[in-house]
Amino acid sequence: MHVELHNDFVDNTTARRGADLISACVHCGFCLATCPTYLDTGDERDSPRGRIYLVKQLLEEGEASEITRHHLDRCLTCRSCETTCPSGMRYGALADLGRGLMEAEAPRSLPSRVFRTALRRVLSRPALFTPLLRVGQLLKPLLPGALGRKVPPRQTTGARPQKQHTRRVLVLEGCAQKAATPATNAAAARVLDRLSISLQAIPGAGCCGAVDYHLGAHQDGLAHMRRNIDAWWPELEKGAEAVISSATGCGSLLQEYGELLAHDKHYAAKAQRISELHRDLAAYLLEQDLETLQPTPTKARIALHIPCSQQHALQQPDTTRAILSRAGFELVVTRDDHLCCGSAGTYSILQADTSERLRQRKLTALCGDTPEIIATANVGCQMHLGEEATVPVQHWIELLDEAISP
């Protein structure tokens, strides 16, 4: 698909990048069948192909309308379309680029800007998010039904290993996960300890940058990336062998640090090295000798939810299933595994109605074979599904940790 850039965009590096990305699209329409929002609304403007045309229109006409922003906002960036695209169209990169241009070319109303800025600042900063969450957990019994369900219960994490092994990896503690589901990384630390590997959280590292970047605040997102690199780099120079993410949503951005900071002469090389050293937790464990764990798995029937970020962005749809199957867990049959649950970072807040419909569809697909537990690999999905699920929703590493605990 060819793009004739408007005169206002001829010298705009971002716009030229957008035109290059669009050129890969052959408007075949295969993406429609795997796009959750198109399947929900039936409106082609809520499909990848429709949104590509809307961004193309922006680049060629030099201006954007509320309609363009509305349909870009409704995109989950689940990237299911990329998995089915025969021409290798990098739709996720185009969607992020389009959102950034929209924020500049068609500013939102003041109330909308204030709300989105507050949302970004709170969610990406544990120092703000954690105390607010603790207040919500304290008041949870007093909150009305729908609001109360949005507040996850406070988790007990158990003790983290104290022994320091020769082999060590760094972990992204994240922002929401650090406060809402701290049991995830505590369980990961115990599992890795059994493999004689230390899991280290480094002060100064925090949000991966996804909250800001996916909401069009690219410079703020890049600032988070640089801050993480600065925090991790001294430890990598001392021999840490990998940067581990236990939230696949964060991991899908970590693997793109090199590309997103390629223009930054001070950080380009370091960012590329971070991307090369990044490992999703499941992928990293599959590289280890798991026979030494000798798990005794629960007899509960488990429905495995594979987050979009794991199967479409990281392109690792089978890693978690392989680990749990080898460990002896009973995995039930699920349907429509390729479709998003509706969490998608801040999507469940900003597009609540669509998000709730997608969640109900996903829960129906997960629970058709009567599971007793739902296991997932991403904090956002865990919290979103957990609001309405009739069975517990846990991170899969917690199940493995329980199976190997003495």
Automatic annotation (TrEMBL):
* Alphabetic keyword roster: 4Fe-4S, Electron transport, Iron, Iron-sulfur, Metal-binding, Oxidoreductase, Repeat, Transport
Q: Is Calcium included in the keywords of this UniProt record?
A: no
Which EC class, in a word? oxidoreductase
Q: What is the E.C. number?
A: 1.1.99.14
MF GO annotations: 4 iron, 4 sulfur cluster binding; D-lactate dehydrogenase activity; glycolate dehydrogenase activity; metal ion binding
Output the InterPro entries linked to this UniProt entry.
4Fe4S_Fe-S-bd, 4Fe4S_Fe_S_CS, Cys_rich_dom, Glc_ox_4Fe-4S, Helical_ferredxn
The record describes how the cofactor is bound as: Binds 2 [4Fe-4S] clusters.
Q: Does the record bear 4Fe-4S in its keywords? A: yes
Q: Which reactions fall under this protein's catalytic activity?
A: glycolate + A = glyoxylate + AH2; (R)-lactate + A = pyruvate + AH2
Task: Provide the function of this protein.
Answer: Component of a complex that catalyzes the oxidation of glycolate to glyoxylate.
Name this polypeptide is given: Glycolate oxidase iron-sulfur subunit
Species: Halioglobus maricola
